[in-house]
Amino acid sequence: MLFKQKIILTAIMAFAILCMTGTVSAANYNVNNTSYTSIFTSTGISSIFNLNGVDYTLKKGDTFTFMDGIYKNVAIILDKQVSILARGNVSLFSDGSSDIIQILSTANGTHVSGFNINGSLKVNGNNAIINNNSIVSSARDGIKISGDNVTVSNNTINGSTLSAVNSAGNNAHIENNYINSSRKDGISSSGSNAAITNNKIYYGLNGINSTGNNVYMENNSIYSSSNDGIISSGNKATIKSSVISFCGKNGINSKGNNANLNATNVTWNNAHGISSSGDNVTIYNSSSKYNKKSGIYSGGYHANLTLNDANYNKEHGIYSKGNNATISQSYTHYNDMNGMYVTGNNNMVNNSYAWLNSYSGVNSTGIGNKFSCIESKYNTLHGIYLSGANNTVSSSTLSYNTLNGIYSTGNNAQISYSYAAGNKNNGIRTSGNNATLYFIYDASSNSQNGIYSTGNNLQMSLVLGANSNKWNGIYLAGNNASVWYVTANNNTKNGIYSTCSNLYLYTVVSAGNNTWNGIHSAGSNAIISDVIASSNLKNGVHSTGSGANLVSITANSNKNNGILSSGSKVNIIYAKTNYNLLNGIYSTGSNALIRNSTSNSNKQNGIMSSSYQTTIYCCNMTKNSINGIYSTGSTVKIIKNKLSSNSNCGINSYGYNALIDSNTIYSNKYGVHSKGSKVFIYGNKIYSNKIHGICSLGSSSTIFSNNAYSNRGSGIYSTGSSAYIYKNTANSNYQNGIYSAGKSASLFYNTASCNKGSGIYSTGAKAQVARNTTKKNKVYGIYAKGKGTRMACNTSTGNKKKNVKR
């Protein structure tokens, strides 16, 4: 009795120790193509099985090694956690009605490795590992997964009727597999948090079709899928370092939000290389070339496209349709349409290159887009084409394009800190209203205009060079333009050409050496101020519009005129027009005002005016080859000017009713030469001229209160009828003080002294000579020989030959 108790106690202790130390460890079994059937039944794994005449009890985690051979009509159902491994060449064939291997949801942690599976494998259990298998000719999915945390690696899967791998479980790892010729997707993944890496996938419907969130895809190589190489519709996907080519649709089709596409190489696809329609997508450091649509298509909001190459595509390099995108450090060359096509709004494109595209380097139709640090060259159309409103271009180089460097048709465009040189049309062309251009470093050597603007309300400033263009340096056709601080030299037409009304052009640093005019303004009410326009082959400034104000113009050494103005009511103020081959200033418009200007050493006239009601005030004309002022218009006012050393006349006036008032005129051939009728010559100081001080040939002229002295002809020489010569002083002239030959002339209150001829010499009939004073003249004091002349109350003393002769 005591002995039995000891045995029972020992047994109890042994059982307790066994419980504390855990279960008996898993076993390893070898099976062949006949013995395996005693273990793997149509309902699962036998809990107790006989192998080689020995009964065994299945334990969790047992390993079954299948020996080399062909296994037919296989339908292995794994309902418990085991490992099944192949040794040698183990080929499994099914009857076609079921999966060859099926891992049930009760068999978590199962491992299947090394088999040649001629059919399909189904994984419902979690934490399974499927690796190093060859799966061919599956009538359904090669591997179908519904369990979580499954790893599928280093498998070769060929010719699946459906997908090679179809995973619906979460946290799947699908890696290092070789997949070929699936009729549906190479890999189809609908679970979240999958990792799909290092797979080679050929000739499927889609290479990878991922619908789950947070999927990570890296280093996959996908070739010749019928649809997309990768299609990803889940959020927060990562597609990285993959090579995708020759797909029937897109290389990558990313539809989910917050995706990250990094370092992909996508080529020769029949649609887009990369197509992204989700929001907040990042496409980084990727190369997309030779695709039949765009290299990169982005349709979602807040996309970030950085450091991408998109070259040689049949449509656009990058096509951005979404709003608020950022495109940076992109290279878009040799595309059959645009380098970058931006149709969304409020996008930012910077530090990017677009060369040799068949359309434009950049084409933007959206609103509020900003382009900075763009280099766009050698494109068949434009460097940048903007058709939307409120777009901005800054710090960009846009050169050698077949049409324009920049062409903006939208309103409120801003272009700054940019170069636009060597383009076949214009450097910069804007047609929208309210454009702003500032700090244009260079708009030179273009085959048309450096800058061409047709929109209204242009604001332009700091154009440092609009030079050597085949047409004009700057061409302004819209109204209300404001232009400040520009340089426009050596252009084949004009430096600046404007047809706009209400132009405000000020501080033209230089508009010189142009083949036509330095500045040509044809619009009304222009203000042109603080300009240097010299050495042009036509005129320095040519203004044809009415109401223009030309202020502080320096226009020297031009082949025609310094300033040519044909509009009415033009003001020319503080001009300096010297050394021009025609006139310093030539005004043909009515009601012009020319004042406070200097016109010296011009080959014709200092100022030439041919229209009526012009006023020339307070100007200085010296050493001009013909006249200081040459005026042919009527009702002209020439007031307070200084005219000296001109080769012909100080003032040469041909118009009627002119007023010549308070001028200082000396050392010319004639001081004043007037041929028009009803001219009023008043208060002038005229001396030391080579012939007459005043030569008046027109009828009914008034010569009043002038001081004409020391002239080598007569002080006053008048031949017109009905002249009124009143209160003049004519002393020390080389001929007569006053000579009057016109009929019915009136000579009153004049003083003529010390002249080498007569003081007053009157030959016209019916003259009236009264209350004049003549002294110390070398011939007569007064000689009045005209028929019917009347004389009264004259004072004539000390004249050498005779005081009065009739």
Could you name the ranges where pLDDT drops below 50 across 5 or more consecutive residues?
1-23
Radius of gyration (Å): 50 Å
Q: What percentage of the residues does DSSP assign to strands (E)?
A: 35-45%
By CATH's scheme, which homologous superfamily of one domain applies?
Single-stranded right-handed beta-helix, Pectin lyase-like
Q: What structural category arises from helix and sheet content?
A: mainly beta
Folded structure, characterized:
By secondary structure, the chain is mainly β. About 0% of the residues lie in helices and about 40% in strands. It has a domain at about 625-805: Pectate Lyase C-like (3 Solenoid), CATH 2.160.20.10. The protein has 1 helix and 97 strands. Strand 4 and strand 5 (about 55) form a beta hairpin. The longest helix is centred in the first third of the chain and has 20 residues, at about 1-20. This is Right handed beta helix domain-containing protein.
